[in-house]
Design goal:
17 strands; globular; pyruvate-formate lyase- activating enzyme; 38% helix; alpha/beta; 4-stranded parallel sheet; 15 helices; 421 residues; 21% strand
């Protein structure tokens, strides 16, 4: 019988959940299926998902095609209407093995009880949920779900629900399970990661969770954080960033724009000055840090001058790893009712941002020639530096090994490492 294939779109959280899906489908005995885990952040992400669904039906005509993820949660009827699709699961149901037991034969999977699906999404067995990461050098660990904020461009709260956090003891149990399975770097992830703990007794912060995790799992060599809201970085996290070398010198910031008027119209909670202050503070605490950011091009009402402030933010914050999103109107959001920037200008501004981002990454890597860093080997002759850069090297090295390397050269998107004795 053919295997289960999972096609993932979108964020790190979706990548994490796809591994949970793989495990849940296996527990249910699902075979000969394609599961498409969709993203709703942009219209392009949804277009690519529909394209993948059609391609899957052509290539595997006998397989059951199951669609899930944020786009399928927000508009399930649209995906049920596609002739290629056999079943649609929302974001809660997709993590429950019961959903896939129903999906093996039924024309539409029977909905699991909300309580059972919620348990699978929040406090399920680490052994059941995390076996999909066994044998990997790096793994994502979801510690937070949902979002309480209402950025005017974003539909994710409708797909993910309100912010809710995993209790620290569950996080530690899952981290220990990952490390016991050979994982050497854990990446904490969530929809709004810096909101961690606000819904828990005692309101533990993300910084407190990270310190507790590193103290309780001393055999974990590397801890990394996914996207951070610059308005929510807590003082405990700043102190840990300064003091703990096992917390990697790499911060990815949810900036979105560099113009204060646009940030207000997005309903973001930080200003341009806050973004610059976060970048300065990070470099003062860890000079080797690499900074990344998400930026949106062509938000409604954005003038050329407003856009230029976002473009200039790449150099002013010395951003090395930039994710560029051309603005995409999402139905039902306030931004979709604002005066739109012509699509041709949106595309042109996105191209300019990507060009500046590529040049910034190349300059950052070139500046690191001759320096040294610990590199986690992820596959033969490929690894990742502590500051996140991809590293290519010659010679042997087993995945999961951490080796110190000197960077002899750089390419546009990676460093060339030489192992140091």
């Amino acid at each position: 019988m053919a295997a289960v294939e999972i096609i993932t779109f979108g964020c790190r959280l979706n990548a994490y959940e796809s591994e949970v899906i793989r495990r849940a489908a296996g527990m249910a005995g699902l075979e000969d299926a394609v599961i498409v885990n969709t993203c709703a952040v942009t219209a392009e992400a949804e277009r690519q998902a529909r394209q993948a669904i059609r391609r899957a039906r052509r290539e595997r005509p006998q397989a059951r095609i199951i669609v899930t993820g944020c786009a399928a949660t927000i508009d399930p009827a649209r995906y049920r209407a596609l002739p290629e699709v056999d079943a649609v699961l929302d974001n809660r149901a997709k993590l429950d093995p019961h959903s896939y037991r129903c999906a093996r034969a039924a024309p539409e999977p029977c909905p699991p009880q909300r309580e059972r699906a919620e348990a699978a999404a929040s406090a399920g067995s680490a052994a059941d949920l995390l076996d999909g990461f066994a044998g990997r050098a790096r793994a994502f660990l979801q510690v937070q779900q949902g979002c309480d904020h209402r950025c005017t461009f974003c539909v994710i709260p409708a797909a993910r629900g309100p912010s809710r956090s995993l209790p620290p003891d569950v996080v530690l149990a899952r981290a220990r399970r990952l490390v016991a399975g050979g994982v050497r770097e854990i990446v904490l992830t969530g929809v709004d990661l810096t909101a961690y703990g606000a819904d828990l007794p005692g309101r533990p912060s993300l910084g407190q969770l990270a310190r507790h995790l590193l103290a309780a799992v001393p055999e974990l060599p590397r801890l990394r954080l996914s996207s951070l809201d610059p308005a929510e970085i807590d003082e405990a996290l700043w102190r840990l960033f300064a003091e703990e070398p096992r917390l990697m010198p790499h911060l990815h910031l949810s900036l979105q724009a560099g113009d204060d008027v646009i940030l207000k119209r997005m309903r973001r909670r930080h200003s341009r000055a806050v973004a610059l202050a976060v970048a300065r503070r990070a470099r003062a605490l860890r000079p080797e840090v690499a900074l990344g950011a998400d930026l949106i091009a062509g938000f409604p009402t954005e003038s050329e001058e407003m856009f230029r402030r976002t473009l200039e933010l790449i150099a002013e914050c010395a951003l090395a790893f930039v994710h560029v999103f051309p603005y995409s109107a999402r139905p039902g959001t306030p931004a979709a009712r604002m005066p739109a920037v012509p699509e041709s200008i949106v595309r042109e501004r996105a191209a300019r941002l990507r060009q500046a981002a590529a040049a910034a990454l190349a300059a950052d890597l070139a500046a690191r020639r001759g320096s040294e860093s610990e590199v986690l080997i992820e596959r033969p002759q490929r690894g990742r530096a502590a500051f996140y850069a991809a590293v290519a090297f010659a010679g042997d090295g087993a995945p999961g090994t951490i080796r110190r390397m000197r960077f002899a050269d750089s390419r546009a998107d990676r460093l060339i490492g030489v192992p140091v004795a």
